[in-house]
Amino acid sequence: MITPVLLCGGSGSRLWPLSRKSYPKQFVQLVGGDTLFQASAKRLSGEGYAAPLIVTNKDFRFIVTEQLVEEGIDPGAVIIEPERLNTGPVVLAAALLQQDLDPDALLLVAPSDHLVPDVEAFRKSVEVAREAALEGKLVTFGIRPDYPETGYGYLELAECIDGKAPRAFELKCFVEKPCLEDARTMVASGAHLWNAGIFLFSVKTIIKAFRDHAPQLVEPVEEAVKHRRMDLGFLRLDPFFWSQAEDISIDYAVMEKADNLAVVPFTSDWSDLGGWDAVWRESEKDEDGVATSGPVTAIECRNTLLRSEDETLELVGIGLENLVAIAMPDAVLVANTNRAQDVRRAVDALKAKRAEQAEDFALEHRPWGWYERLVVGQRFQVNRIVVHPGASMSLQSHHHRAEHWIVVEGTARITLDEETSLLAENQSVYIPLGVVHRLENPGKLPAVLIEVQTGSYLGEDDIIRFEDLYHRA
Q1: By three-state DSSP, how is residue 89 classified?
Q2: CB neighbours of 156 closer than 8 A, spacing ≥ 6?
Q3: What local confidence, expressed as pLDDT, does residue 364 receive?
Q4: Pairing of strands 78-81, 171-175
Q5: Torsion of CA 405, 406, 407, 413, to 10 degrees
Q6: Is 0.90 surpassed by the pTM of this model?
Q7: What is the DSSP letter of 430?
Q8: Fold of 363-467
Q9: Per CATH, the architecture of 2-266 is what?
Q10: How big is the chain by its Cα radius of gyration, in Å?
Q11: 3-state helix, strand, coil in the chain (%, to 5)
């Protein structure tokens, strides 16, 4: 039985403005009907696979379980990082947790934001890797390159794979992200693969590798795991000991030092969707190479990606060539396709000017549902609130704002101090400043409300919580 370890704590800034720190690309529908996280979980489930170990942070924990439930997948253990570290301590923590259950188990470590259309081909590669992993190898998966990509690291094999039967090959060395000329040479060689960042190994093999090659990680991660605590079914690692672990990737910590490595080539389609140019390549295109999504009109365009992420926002492109245009309610990106890797520079520039759009959406996900900012003024804000059936906001109050809630769909149970009432569609309630209140959805359909906030300060940190189903501070 293989236990998948799905990593889903990244920020995905290269796909801004659709992917942001508050809701990154793995949870977004980029290509196809599923999110990348859902597609990854489905790819690593079924016969031969145990329930996955999910590693994420506190902001995404409810998004993870919600998206898995939508696909009918048992989330298994959801591990919460107290702070985001690289893959070295993350993988070690997952192995130490699994060690108590089955030290001989195989762990398949994979990012949750990769696109792998041919699921059966991927599973066959995993089966090829299984034998090497059971023999004590640290197996990494390499992607057969079909163009000279400079944004990936490469794996150099000891021999060319052309014409060879599928098997685990000996790894000669890791190659950092190359210049274009070197990338062309490596693609032509037949002995280089893209480094996919996917690994298969037994629990005892990877723990020994960390003890041998990265002993500085072992004690703080062991202590963080030892002092873990359960929180609503989530497994929180100890923040004090976790903060003492080095922020280092598994490649640098272990893989580049170990002598028991093997590489299994994966020759079918794969992409990490690491930029809008990659999304364009993987999208369905017309005869002029134009890929569209949402309410879009393209007139005499070529080799262009046009996406409108709002059904009320029409995006029109005229005479565009080799361009990416992504339109959202609060931000628009227009870039040359060959400058797609520079999108993160735009995010850095927006952060420098303190623009909210750099990291946050107008639509904010919460464990009880979501809310969307519709209008923002100096002393008022209008939101649309959607509460899932059976869900509840915290019992709370505010120092600086009053609120007016109007139910437009469904039913809402409202608590104001000691009084509780049930509101139906077209009914409303006023919540004066300082009043302790709560909103619940007792129905079987989502409750939708329009909220008008008024006051001297409208920030989300002006919330005093007295009770909360989701244990938020």
Answers
A1: helix
A2: 171, 172, 173, 174, 175, 186, 191, 192
A3: 87
A4: unpaired
A5: 30
A6: no
A7: E
A8: Jelly Rolls (2.60.120)
A9: Alpha-Beta Complex (3.90)
A10: 24
A11: 25, 35, 40
| Inter-CA distances, 410 with 92, 144, 365, 373, 444, Å | 46, 52, 19, 20, 9
Q: Where are the domains of the chain?
A: 2-266, 276-352, 363-467
d(CA 78, CA 67): 13
Helix ranges (H only) for 152-202 are: 180-189
Whether 190 has a pLDDT exceeding 90, the answer reads no
Count Cβ atoms below 10 Å from residue 466 Cβ, excluding itself: 10
Asked if 297 and 315 count as a contact pair (C-beta separation under 8 A), the reply is: yes
Distance in angstroms (rounded) separating the CA atoms of residues 74 and 53: 10
Residues in the chain, total: 473
Tell whether the model's pLDDT for residue 76 goes beyond 80: no
Instruction: Give the helix/strand (H/E) hosting 324.
Output: strand 323-328
Contact 42, 71 (CB under 8 A): yes
Question: Which run of H or E residues covers position 388?
Answer: none
Nearest to 364 by CA among 377, 373, 354: 373
Name the strand (E) or helix (H) holding 62: helix 61-70
Q: How far apart are CA 2 and CA 44, in angstroms?
A: 9
Cα torsion 25, 28, 33, 38 to 10°: value is: 70
State the Cα angle at 438 between 436 and 441, rounded to 5°: 170
